[in-house]
Amino acid sequence: MEELSLISEMVAQRTLFATKEVLTSDEAAAYMGVSKSYLYKLTMRQMIPHYKPNGKIVYFNRKELEAWLQSNRVSTAEEISQQAQSYCRKQPKK
């Protein structure tokens, strides 16, 4: 019974993340899979987009969090190899 309750809570939480556009700090940290203290550091350093409508409580836009999480993509070794081969083919021969 306890396991079923836990599963139900997880499904509800994931549904909330998929439908809710504005997240609290707790929800944003859970959504991103980071600690609340790390999220606080990111906001204090102004490294992550956030809102403070009353000057104190911090809110996050889910779509902006998704965009931030997907920024600074690291290319795979295969992609880098293909780029290098393409670059070498374009170089004029001396």
Helicity range of the residues?
Answer: 55-70%
pLDDT average, as an integer?
A: 88
Regions with little confidence, pLDDT below 50 for 5+ residues: none
Q: In angstroms, what is the radius of gyration?
A: 20 Å
Task: Explain what you see.
By secondary structure, the chain is mainly alpha-helical. The protein has one domain: Orthogonal Bundle (Multidrug-efflux Transporter Regulator, Chain: A, Domain 2), CATH 1.10.1660.10. It is 61% helix and 6% strand. It has helices at 2-19, 25-32, 36-44, 62-69, 77-90, and strands at residues 22-24, 59-61. A two-stranded antiparallel ribbon has the order 1-2. The model has no long low-confidence stretch (mean pLDDT 88).
Produce the secondary structure layout:
Blueprint: H1 2-19, E1 22-24, H2 25-32, H3 36-44, E2 59-61, H4 62-69, H5 77-90
Antiparallel strand pairs: 1-2
Features:
single chain, 94 residues, mainly alpha, Multidrug-efflux Transporter Regulator, Chain: A, Domain 2, two-stranded antiparallel ribbon, 5 helices, 2 strands, 61% helix
